[in-house]
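Predict structure. Chain length: 196.
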Amino acid sequence: VNDTAGIVSFADHATLKKQLTHNKNDLINTINSLTANGATNTGEGIRIAQQELDLHSPNNAYPVIILMTDGLPTTHHQGYSWQSCENCPISNNTCTNYARSEANLSKAANTSVFSIAFTEGIYGYCQQNDTVDYANWLLLDISSGTDYFYTTADINTLEQIYQNISSKIGQIVINNLQVTDYLPNNIEVLSTGGGT
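Prediction complete.
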């Protein structure tokens, strides 16, 4: 398998923590070194992830972003300054719109965007069901569609969610697989069996 993965963390700012690599141990060590603090700059996280895919994806790769967050966007970059938004929104604001805009740019670049709403963290901070409902709506909108969106309040289900995403990516790659077979000039094709 020629898969690569990278890691972007996002708080007040987004940081490329690990460039695209084949080294699973490096990725695990990077994940284990992450700490949660600061705001939630979802849009910058998506932007930096897409930038890494654009710059370092292998040729003919199937680009994917998997966004997992326990918070809603609370800051974003605008021009040369950072803008803050409310911590527990229940409707769109400049921070959520920036995240949606960056996700739309990724999807327009043919990147599949999976999103995982870890709502235990959102509810634990905001204590509002309306905020959790909005988070689910927002992360569904950020994703590439209902089959690309997951939500859970149970940390024990995250491993299964990532396994489901892995299976989904495998299916998408198989469905988009194209095989080209070059035949010598003296071979005549009588039927393609209904395929193209």
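Summary: The mean pLDDT is 89.
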